[in-house]
Amino acid sequence: MSARLALILIAASALLIPAFAGPFWVFVAIEVVVFALYAVTFNLLFGFGGMLPFGHAAFFGLGAYAVAVLVKKAAWHPLLALGAAPFVCAAAAAFVALFCVRLTGIYLGMLSFSFQMLLYTVIFKWYSLTGGDDGLSGLGIPGLLGTPAALYYLSLAVVTVSLLFLWRLAHSPFGKALQAAKSNAQKSAAIGINVALHRGITFVVAGAFAGLAGALFALANQSVFPGWLNWTASAVPIVMTVLGGMHSFVGPIIGSAVYVVLQTVLTGYTEYWALILGALVIGIVMLMPEGIMGYFRG
Predict the structure, then answer these.
(1) From CA 68, how far away is CA 131, in angstroms rounded?
(2) d(CA 45, CA 206)
(3) Phi first, then psi: what are they for 70, rounded to 5°?
(4) Taking a C-beta distance cutoff of 8 angstroms, is the pair 39, 60 a contact?
(5) CA distance 66 to 61
(6) Is 298's pLDDT higher than 50?
(7) Residue 190 and residue 116: Cα distance in Å, rounded?
């Protein structure tokens, strides 16, 4: 089967999901689509840029809260708030990038994680704006766009366009320069590549699209909670990326689908789903060190 035919079959299957699945599985499909974008933004930093931010969940959660605050406190239409969320997250990512992009390894990871926990604390404590530990609810889109099928097609359309943009960016001369800086920053700087600028732009783009994913997830859930920014939330895109394969653009998309479906199925059978899911993920990673995509390519 050619790659083009496979993509056509996947696209056709995605379009037909609401016609054959109930509301619950339509929501699961929305979650897969949204987390696919979230995981790809993380892999843009990690797999392509060589940066490992432990605080990437900050932008996912900030995008969700940007939508929630604009809808509940400023009375914006949810779709208008959805369009504003990536710009809020891009501005936040630009600020964080000023401190992080010149660092590498564990130093970059821990500093980004510190910003995430700072943002989590502000959201958790600012009851008048964010609702504190109760979060914010009632974010549904009015009219026909608020139905599960409409939300799914909205998420699918937004994520598809976003992934096409990110794919072009990753495979453009900019993306090649970013990968060169990942391989050897000193040699890249010697031949004229501005390593800090490339990493900074990538940080902003990844933060903006992670915020867009969070905004879509908030509208699908019709609510948002501070736990989306807690320290455990940052593990989700890392697991998805490693599971699918960080050396491939498509890998995190597959990893997100496997992770979400496994989690959904296991929670329906046992309260110890996290233990079983962790064991399954460890087993898959041990059998496929390069991820699912790396295994099939090999």
Answers:
(1) 10
(2) 7
(3) -65, -35
(4) no
(5) 8
(6) yes
(7) 33
- Category of 184 on φ-ψ map: left (φ > 0), alpha (ψ -120 to 50) or beta: beta
SS3 (DSSP) at 147: coil
Strand partners, 137: 223
| Contact by Cβ (8 Å): 68, 218 | yes
Q: How confident is the model at residue 6 (pLDDT cuts 50, 70, 90)?
A: low
| Tokens describing residue 103 | 């660092």
For 27, counting Cβ atoms within 10 Å of its Cβ (0-12 exposed, 13-18 middle, 19+ buried), the class is middle
The conformation of residue 142, written as its DSSP 8-state character, comes to P
Question: Rounded to whole angstroms, what are the CA distances from 293 to 45, 49, 58?
Answer: 18, 19, 27
Residue pLDDT, tens place only, 89-112:
999 999 999 998 888 888 888 999
Q: Give per-residue pLDDT as tens, 156-182.
A: 999 999 999 999 999 999 999 999 988
Beta bridge mates, 223: 137
Type of residue numbered 82: L
The two three-digit tokens of residue 208, written as one number: 């903006």
Residue among 199, 266, 226 nearest 53 (CA): 199
Residue predicted with more confidence, 144 or 148 = 148
Q: Residue 175: phi, psi to the nearest 5?
A: -65, -40
Q: CA–CA separation, 198 vs 181, rounded Å?
A: 9
Q: Are 209 and 37 in contact (CB under 8 A)?
A: yes
